[in-house]
Design goal:
globular; alpha+beta; six-stranded antiparallel beta sheet; single chain; 197 residues
Length: 197
Amino acid sequence: ILMFSMYPDAKVFYREYVQNAYDAIVEATRKGVLPAVKDGNISININTSERYISILDNGIGISVADVPKFLLNIADGNKDGITTAGQYGIGRLVGARYCKKLIFKTSTIGEEKYSEVIFDTDLAQKIIHDKNDHSTATEVIARITSINYGDENIDDHYFEVKMEDVDTSYKELLKPNVIKEYLQEVAPIDYELEFKN
């Protein structure tokens, strides 16, 4: 349900990942990694020809030691839903339905390593639809995931969601103008209004 049928609108994963990125930027400002929220950056790259989507932020990132806990424990969120946009720890897998591989790459300041968690969503679909396979949810996650580590600049801090081989049935997901309009309606944005007499 979390990976393949939680939300009816395909575009919703953009909102979920932008919310997570925003929360990471807010956390980076709280911890002094970024001077202010306005110094945060969320970039979305949509490659129509290669059917590839990337959502990258310069927020707090996740340490190598914490990656399994935060990215492999499903529905174990540590957000309060008040000071953060997210809350339940389930939104990270929402993009799985629309691609063959869902990849999270992250690093945090002070570490010389990055972590990359790969969800083979194509394999997950096969397991789920195999009536003879009675694996538990934990077993399925273990079978469809792999973690890679690599060298990184000690000052880098980021989190990137990559979606490879986006399903051609969802053409709107690869249309930048459609996604831009959608995000203008739903993305969490800090704003301040000053009323003057």
